[in-house]
Amino acid sequence: MKLFLRRTLELHNIIQDFAAVTLKHNVAHCNSFIILVSNLQTRHMSNDIILQISNRIKEKRKEKKITLEALAKEVGVTKGLISQIENSRTVPSLSVLLSIIKSLHVDLNDFFDKLVTGITDEPIVIKAGQHQHIEKEYTKGTYYNRITSFKINENPVDIVLYKQEKNARKGYVSTEAHEFDYMIKGKMQYTINNQKYILEKGDSFYYDARKPHHTKCLSDDPYEMLVIYFFDQL
Q1: Which has the least CB within 10 A, 63, 70, 147, 223?
Q2: What are the φ and ψ backbone dihedral angles of 81, each rounded to 5 degrees?
Q3: Residue 114 above 80 pLDDT?
Q4: 121 found inside a domain
């Protein structure tokens, strides 16, 4: 009963916030979004909708042929923030999310269509062929495949298989999350604050991914690791 009351209050506050933002931005056709928020707050979902939104933003922006710079200017934020949102490195606030959707000139029903996945309390089997390839910043020789995403105590968690080739071109990046890595094969090097950390098969690594960090493959074959991102609650 206490959990129900707490979630009801959370839902009330979010919808109240959404109503205020909707009036501010003159957003129409919001029924699907209100239903979506209700589902987020009252049910357990196998995949967290918040993390799926990043791919939808990138997808719609490319469909509209809008550059990162143009979208950032229209929304009133930095190009870097839009890039981080699209690359699942940070979770946008409700106000920023609605501003992005408005600036993309996309109907809310269209934007959120089919984002909500099946709801179940049963164990979930995710086959290797069901992993979702995701694109992050422009790099050559790096590969991200999302296994799944969900929430723990209302905080988004993203689980990804990451592979990087020896001659991959990748600069420093940061993610608005804490990160746990488990090396599956190969050898790699992390550089954080000018400190180098070497990881090999079977090693684990946990750090604050908000700090700029660089990864380098030290083995002849690509290294692979399991990556778990722990995002803060909105």
Answers
A1: 63
A2: -65, -45
A3: no
A4: no
CA-to-CA distance for 78 and 36, rounded, in angstroms?
A: 27
Domain residues for 161? Answer: 128-231
Note whether 159 and 101 are same-domain residues. no
**Cβ burial, residue 149 (10 Å; 0-12/13-18/19+):** buried
- pLDDT surpasses 80 at 234: no
Model pLDDT for residues 67-90, shown as the tens digit of each residue: 999 999 999 999 888 988 887 777
The enclosing H or E element of 95 equals helix 94-103
Q: How many residues does the chain have?
A: 234
**Rg of the chain taking only CA atoms, in angstroms:** 19
Predicted TM-score (pTM) above 0.90: no
Q: How far is the C-alpha of 97 from the C-alpha of 28, rounded, in Å?
A: 14
Interatomic CA distance for residues 228 and 143, integer angstroms = 15
CA distances from 92 to 59, 121, 205 (A): 16, 27, 26
